[in-house]
Amino acid sequence: MYILLLFPALAALVFIRFLYNVFRHDLYWIPGPFFVRFSNIWRFIEMYRARYADNAVALHHKYGKIVRTGPNHVSVADPDMIDQIYGHRQDYPKSDMVVPWQKVVNGKIMTGIVDTRDRKRHSELKRPVASIYSMSSIANAEDFISDTIAYFVKRLDESFISGLSGERKVPMAAWVQYFAFDAIGELTISRRFGFLETGADPEDQLGQIDRELEYRAVIGTMPWTHYLIKGNWFYRRFIEPTTGFILKASNLIKDRAVNGSTHPERRDMMARFIEAQKAHPDIVDDNVLRAYITTNLVAGSDTTAVVMRAAIYYAIRNPHVMKRVQQELDDNNVTYPLQYKTSIALPYVDAFINEVLRYHPVASIPLERVVPPEGMPTPFGHRLPGGVVVSMTPWVTNFDTEIFGVDAEKFNPERWLQGEKESHEASKHRLSVMRANEFSFSKGPRKCLGIHVAQQELWKCIPTLLGLFDITLAEPQKEWKVKKQFVSKQSEMDVILQWRPGKSLKDVSHLP
């Protein structure tokens, strides 16, 4: 009998919670679709359909700089609030969105540098390895990136140009990710994983990453559902006791312990992670070591691949941009692969890559933070209460016309250069404002740890490909496809490659 009384009581509690979500006074002032006040189902569905980022743009166009997107979720598009939410002086932890990101080892949940919510724990995990990701450290490994770029060019030539009679379509969307994964392998363990060599993903590692990131994005909108799927005791005990890429990291560590490095003269990232474990045994246990390596593998390839696809595609779709990039490379008699310091010193090349990063952000998820207990002041005349989840989305912020100009919807590398009638001081100020508000790698202490790895790869590989090859779309009448879930991943961009006049493998150094 008492059990029967329990059901109406639970129903009453659910109804009361429903009314609270709809009519809660502390968020009632924030505009947005009426139905998002009821539950996070809208966010779940839109992320599943890979439409959340585009809908966030539409909502901000309709309602303004602050929009309610869920019962306890608010999306912000005011650049003045970037530092307030994500800055070094603030303490806005990540939301429960990261719960599905957490890895499992022997049935137990573990948090890593990316998926820990606690900022103190994040700082603790970051401290032993921060120097490994510094620009000076990555610069010391630049030759290894050059080796992989040279091999990439060689494999493209062998597979699609000189090794064949006639033209053949290059599935470039896949090949740039083969490069990115092999490049992170070279940096992490001093050897490539074999993607470029085989021109394939025989172990479905990239497929595993795609499925993992899709799961994180979709389930992260309603984190409690994670416990119904993968986060529960039964799944962790009997179905997947250890996350797949943690197993791969464990195997790489074991291989290093047994066989040593293929290039013992190098201090690759694996060697330095192990050194960090010895120097900080109280912080870097075996699970943390595995998590460092896993983060490299999962995050290290997608970021680079997304930007490289975008660079190639927008260069092809804007022939005047392609021509100007190639002209600048030719005029400066650059050598290939480009040195990073050479690439960043070429004004138009640098502007082009910065515009690619702005125009096609890597992340499509909202970058969620939780308002601290004392609440959050806003420039809208109200205060957000503690516990509210506030977020910005790069596909919104990177197109702000107040920051990036009235033509922010247009792909225009010239915005990153001094205008003809613009003074040096005015240009310097405008560019500093754009750089401060460009949101591709996030901001503050939780900014992408591997940003310098990505910069080295992008500023070296993109101009190398554009400088050496004439690249055209195999089906120019066909638009590519972009799936905006965790990352803004592109597909269906097959291209035709030919050497540019006077260019060949003889122009490429670092060949194996």
TrEMBL record:
Annotated Pfam families: p450 (PF00067)
Binding residues annotated for heme, in chain numbering: C448
InterPro entries given in the database record: Cyt_P450 (IPR001128), Cyt_P450_CS (IPR017972), Cyt_P450_E_grp-I (IPR002401), Cyt_P450_sf (IPR036396), Cytochrome_P450_monoxygenase (IPR050121)
Gene3D superfamilies: Cytochrome P450 (1.10.630.10)
Cofactor(s) in the UniProt record: heme
Keywords: Heme, Iron, Metal-binding, Monooxygenase, Oxidoreductase
GO molecular function terms listed in the Swiss-Prot or TrEMBL record: heme binding; iron ion binding; monooxygenase activity; oxidoreductase activity, acting on paired donors, with incorporation or reduction of molecular oxygen
Family: Belongs to the cytochrome P450 family.
Protein name as catalogued: Cytochrome P450
Species this protein is from: Rhizodiscina lignyota
